[in-house]
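Hi support team,

I submitted a single chain yesterday and got back a structure, but I'm not sure I'm reading the token output correctly. Could someone confirm the output below corresponds to the sequence I sent? I've pasted both exactly as they appear in my results page.

Thanks,
R.
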Amino acid sequence: MERHKSNTRKKKYFISAMIHYAGWFLLELVMTFILANVVVKGNTIIGNAIDQMLSEGNVKLVSFMGTLLLMTAVGFAFAFIKSAAASKYSVAVQTRFKSQVAEKLYHLEYKYFDANGSASVINKMNSDIAEADTFLNELLPSLCTSFLTIVVYAVYIGTLNPGLLLIMIVLYPLVLILSDVIAKKVVALKKIHREKADRVMEISQDCVSGILVLRAFGAENLFQKDLDKAADEIVEYESKRVRISNTAMIIRKMLQWLPNIICAVYAYILVCQGNLSIGSLMAFIVILAKFVENFIGLPFDLVEARECLVCIRRIENIMAQKDEPGWEIEKDNESEKTVAVAGAKSGDISDERDSSFAIEFKDIHFSYDAQEQHHMHEVLHGLTFQIPMGSTTAFVGDSGGGKSTIFHILCGFYPASGGIYKLFGKNFSQWNIEEARKQMALVSQNVFLFPTTIRENVAYGNQSATEQEIIEACKNARIHDFIMNLPAGYDTMVGERGILLSGGERQRISIARAFLKNAPILLLDEPTSAVDVPTERLIQEAIDHLSKNRTCLIIAHRLSTVEKADQIMVLKDGVIAETGTHQRLLKQGGVYAGMYGREESIQEDSLEQVENVDIKKETNSHIDEEVRA
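Hi R., thanks for writing in. Yes, this is the structure output for that exact sequence:
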């Protein structure tokens, strides 16, 4: 299957957005050109008036003031149009570019987020895009104005006297040469500065997210040292950049006045020789001042623009990353509709496919690319199994055996390194990834809730759901009564990552979200691993209700929770060591039986400890009674 075009060639999205709205940019350039010529024309009128006054001794203001006032009015009008065009162009380009970046984030391969910290991505989205805004709002208009006005003023000076233009052409490019040398050094430092800023953002986010752990273990000093080190490095590189910029500023001032003096002296000589009139001299001085104003600022605008381009390239690097496979496949409403309506059994499938399996793995291999170790770590080794529609399958085994990796492949977060994965009889590579994920509802042990209301968090399961459907989902998840006892009810804010709720409450909200999605396949990633016994019972009731007549896959560490599964697959070192029902696996006396025996032994020890505590309490109670007697 051909991958998305953005994956096969590197496209310049920012430049593409600029070209897309080039009409507004051209209008801005035209207005800039006209304004520069208005200034030149007005300056010419004043210069001619001075010459006329010196030759004739008298000049009537009426003869040229009307023209000047008209040109002034026209200049204001064109300046307004120029400003409006520049604003429209900037907003349009920024909107298009930001929209493309946001869309890209949704389509990026999951492993990109594993390889790059969230803080680094957030810093690029905020700080680097802000630099792109600066480029469009400030630097690009300034550069365009400077270039055009320099050209117009240079042509005008050439008409006054070609010698003056020749001197300017020789002297002023020295400033450009110097600025290019400075720019290369500043751009290199800017790139390092942005990387260090990413590191500060990462440390700061870790500190905020893990503040409880830091305080509980007294590890604040370690993070503070890392933060101080990163901040010191930023200051060091920024100091170098400022020193270079300040040195350049001093040199710029020197170079700015040297050509001015030379040009002024040469113009004076021309006047003395009769080759330049007094009026033309005055016009030259005015235009030279404006020429220098634009020319001197141009090199340093170029330096700042190159600094901004460093940030833009960092964003373009995100845009150049590969998309998840499957986004480029068109949706087929007939063949990729929801394969099994809620409650469907294998015989009730309203789909044309004749496969009776919801999921099929055939010789699946998978490796995480451990680039920093320069080797591939294979997690799954030729995994083969079939999941009948409407059945419940449990995956058990030690940590690191590949259970969570199976779920990652099922959801399309990671593609298999080799083998065939079929979803409802169709090769997963032929599914539109969005349509494929509509077939699954995931309930994870690490529940993520958005910092909004309970209602909105549940509604993420189905954004078109009605209020009654949301309430019904919460009732099924055994969380409705709890919500109704809250002062704000369903409008209660859950806080960042749901911090204002307990683990069991967050878990039941995630189950309500899965109810609302109403998908035919249910993926349960150890949903009761970190809750107390009463809460576990509520969650288990909700899960039992949710999994009725659905294809259900469970990752379990507590084997007692999967005894009723239709089939249990025991994973060990990336392969299926055993498969069967609970009773069959116990009779085999293999890996599963050993795991189950160890779990029972731990539970018996726990019960014994509880009984000993109870006996001790009872004994102490009798002793206290005898003492009182």
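A quick pointer for reading it: The first helix runs from residue 5 to 8. Let us know if anything else looks off.

Best,
Support desk
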